[in-house]
Amino acid sequence: RTLSQLPEDTRLPWHRVLAAGGRISLPAGSPSGDEQRARLRGEGLSIVNNRVDIRRHGWRQIEHCG
């Protein structure tokens, strides 16, 4: 719900927000769902069965700590 309130020109990478297990919750065929999938694929992520492989593409704390 919060993401739907963002202005159209937001710089927040909303397309990276996924449901549990890497599931894409926006419906395939919807404008926002298609845009999310295109942006994720544009970043080199593969989508299989409406999911992103979190083990492969997920955030790893050790890589982001100082």
Structure, described:
The chain has helices spanning 31-42, 54-57, 61-64, and strands at residues 47-48, 51-52. The chain has 66 residues and is mainly alpha-helical. The longest helix is centred in the middle third of the chain and has 12 residues, at 31-42. The chain is 30% helix and 6% strand. The protein starts with 30 loop residues before the first helix and ends with a helix. Strands 1-2 form a two-stranded antiparallel ribbon. The mean pLDDT is 87. The protein has one domain. A hairpin with a 2-residue loop joins strand 1 and strand 2.
> How helix-rich are the residues, as a percent range?
25-40%
Helix and strand composition category: mainly alpha
| Strand order across the largest sheet | 1-2
Strand residue content: 5-15%
Count of beta strands: 2
How far is it from the N-terminal to the C-terminal residue, by CA? Answer: 33 Å
N-to-C SSE string, H for helix and E for strand: HEEHH
Molecular shape: globular
Low-confidence stretches: none
